[in-house]
Every structure is written in structure tokens, then in C-alpha cells.
Amino acid sequence: MSPTVSVLVRNRDFRNLFLAELVVFGSDWFVMVPLLVLLPELTGSGVWGALVLAVDTGTMALLLPYTGTVADRLDRRKTMIGANLAALAGVLLLLGVRGAGTAWLALVAIAAVAVAKAFYSPAAQAALPNVLDPADLAAGNAVAGSAWGTMTVVGASLGGMLSSAAGPYVSFWVAAGGLAAAAGLATRIRRPLQAPRDSALPHPRTWPAIHEALRYIAHRPRVLALVAVKSGVGLGNGVLTVFPLLAGVYGLGSVGTGLLFAFRGAGALVGPILMRRVLTNRAWLLTGLALSMSLYGLAYVGVSVVGWFPLVLVLVLLAHVGGGSNWVLSNYALQREVPDRLRGRVFATDMMLATLAISVSQLGVALVVDQVSERTVLAGCGLVTVVYAVVWRFATRRLSLAEPAAEPEPEATRAS
């Protein structure tokens, strides 16, 4: 039995956490794919789709510095359950989006879902090492990294087909049911999702806690490099805005949009599995991160010049083999570098920078999507990522992750 399958079979708590994330990620795509097709149909403009994506990522980016402190301060299991129930309420608001005059309600609903995800994501990421034995950490990251890709394949493809066959509102109901199921799975996790805290050390207040995490990142070049790496793919993420428009070019509508997102997810699923050997060799991690960014950018440049939809799908898959590998490699490296008491805040900062980069990319595309061709957007986003990869690797050329990280001294101890 392979290590990635074995850890799922042996570890019930990890299995429940993994299944909860599968359902959460799948529900997200039962919302996004139908909504990105519905809004242009209702409004006659591609801008609304770009705004939805930007609100989703931008709201998360603004909240993550605070929600990271919550992940380090409060019970992570309860945080995840509450976030899932709040997201469910946001999804139900989408049932009111029925015409151009109510398109604004989609932005409110997606903002509410994004608030919930901002609480859920740092808690789930920070909890992962606590449900895994040290020997299973690499295999567990490969499995957990595939969760998003797996459910992008399932959620995007089924969301597109269900929306095409039964309408977007049925998809929204399915997403709401999935979020309720995810909350139930989280209640079945029995291991503590954070390390025991020293009761003599009070929890720092929000702003001092954020400041401590930022100082920790700034004074450790390896952590700073890892926190900055996801932004390369994030700055190229504006390509997602033109997926519905690109499917329209080929006359494929909701089904084509679902296929594009599904092949995106397939790449994100395959990438972490292919890169599992790199996870076990820390000396390869920085080079692997630069190569994964470059693959993402070059593949989307390829999408911009080909004219056959099956080849477009293959290139999208290759792009997200790179993007998925980049995400999992950097997460694994950060888990090994950062101690538990700071992990939620550092991961929140990591996700904040990535989502800010995504928001910048999507807002940039929103400004030009009705004036330039889809192919120009694809080429521009791809080239931005390639340039970022080259600059990032040059800046990190003297760093190595081969040596173990040093445990930082607690803030309260230094102050005394």
C-alpha cells in the first residue's frame, strides 16, 4: 500500500479532516462555476464575473491577518465548524440572484462566503500537522494537497453539467448541503487540533500577535521566501476570469467552463502526487518551487496561441500541475519551518499575500476584459508568472532548506 493511501486508511482523524476539506472545496465549485456563467447571462458583461472572483479573494486577503490569530488562539475544530455554517448561509443568499437588478446580491453572498473561508483556511492548514504523526507529514501533505484538485475536478465538472441540465439554483442547494456535511465531519475529529499552550503565557492581543508573526517572517529569509512564493501563480490567476468567455469562443457554454475548471483541478490533483519525492528532499524544494511557477506561466502562454479546445484542456492541466505543486511544496516547507504557536498566523500571512496577488490579477483583468481579447489576457497573465518565477529564484539563490529550522523564543519570554 502506498504511503499516501496508507495514511488515509490508518488515521481516522486525518481522514475526517481530509473528507471535510474535500466537501468544502467541492461546494465552492458548485457555487462558482454556475455563478460565473449566470452573471454574464443576466447582465451581458464579463465584468461581474471578474468582480465576484475579486471580492472572493480580496475579502479573504483583508481578513486573513486577523483570522490567523484566531486559528492560533481559539479551538480550531470549532472555528472550522462555525465557518462552514456561516458559508452555508452565504450560499443561500445566491438564490435571490434572478436578474441584472439583483446581480449585486451575488457580491454580498460571495463576500459572506469569503469571510467564512478566511476563518476556515488558516485553521485547517494549521491543524494538519496536529492530526499527523511526523513520519506521515510528507504523505499527508501530498494527500491534503490533492483535496482541492480532486474536488475542482468533481465540483467544477459536475457543477457545470448540473447547472446546464437543471439550472444554477440547484447547484447552489447542493453546495449548501455539502457545507452542512463538512461541519458534521469536523465534529468527528478527536485529536486536538493545536499543541498544548503554556497557561502561564497569556494569549497576545490581535495586533501584537500579528506584529509578532510579521517580525518572525521578516527576520527569517527562508520563511520570507516561502511566504512570497505563492504570489507568482496568484498574479497569473486572472486567467480564471476568462474561462467562461473562452468556453464561449468554442461554443461550449457551461459545459466548456466546467471542463476548463475540471482540468484545472485535475492538474492540481496530479501535481502534488508527482512532486511527493521532492517533498522528502528539502534540498530540492526551492528549485521545485521556481520550476512549478514557470510551468504554470508557460502553459497559459501556450493556451493563448492554440486553437483546438482539447489541446487547451491539456495545457490548462499542465499549468495547474505546476500551480498545485507550488502550493503543496510551499505549504509543506512552511509546516516544517514554523512552530505550532505561530503556524496559524504565518499561514494566514501566506494566504493573504497569495489572495492579494490573485485579487490584483483579477481586478486588472476586470478593467480590460471587455476591451481586449481572451487570448491577450491569457498571454499577459502567463508572462507575469514566468517573470516572477525568474526574479524569485534569483533572489533566493543563496538560500537552502536542507538545515532544520530553529525554534523561536516566545514573545512573552523576550519581553520579560
TrEMBL record:
Membrane topology (UniProt): Multi-pass membrane protein
Compartments where located: Cell membrane
The keyword tRNA processing appears for this protein: no
Predominant localisation class: membrane
Name of this chain's protein: Predicted arabinose efflux permease, MFS family
Keywords: Cell membrane, Membrane, Transmembrane, Transmembrane helix, Transport
GO molecular function, one term: transmembrane transporter activity
Record's signal peptide: none
One Pfam family hit: MFS_1
One GO CC annotation: plasma membrane
Transmembrane feature ranges: 17-39, 45-67, 79-97, 103-120, 141-163, 169-187, 223-243, 249-271, 283-302, 308-334, 346-369, 375-395
